[in-house]
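Hello forum,

I keep getting stuck at the same step: I have a sequence, I want structure tokens, and every attempt I make locally crashes halfway through. Rather than fight my setup again tonight, could one of you with a working pipeline run this one for me? It's a single chain of 175 residues.
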Amino acid sequence: MTAYGAARFNVLISRSNPSITQTILTDYFDSKKIVSFDEIGFKVAFAVEQYDDSRKGKDDPNFVAWTVQLTKNIGKTETVIPLKFHKCTDADYDSFYKPANSYKAMFEVARSRKNLYCIDDGQNVEIFGMGDQSDYQRLDFMLLPCKQQGKICSTSLQQKIEYLGSVDIVVLYNR
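Reply #2:
Ran it on my machine without issues. Output:
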């Protein structure tokens, strides 16, 4: 669902196709089912890129900082579990399922830009619940304004806004 949400957010940001859609998921997990990324072999890569021909990655620590975490809410008590992540390597890309012919070129172009991040293996990433009134655990990717840490991130809010400009959220996942 995170990838679908990211795709719909991208449509919202780019102001394309402002229609309302209904999607029926035939392989939907109900809110009680715990989905382990390791058990189902789920991989995800993510980036924010400039929305122009350059496709420059928007990850300069003087402006922004990525946060990747599991957010768990059990009995109205929220717990945040930070996750480790890294720039995707060739080994990461090789661990994705082979893309269908219709996505092969897009996958290779995204790979060649070297902007994508991958979640470190061995962190027992599991999600469950609906995020409504039930207990849940979700995966969050957040690109946040950086915080001052010595010489890093001495930029103003206006500089951060100008740095980001028009962006595209890129999420690759295997299914």
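The chain is about 25% helix and 30% strand. If your local run keeps crashing, start a new thread with the error log.
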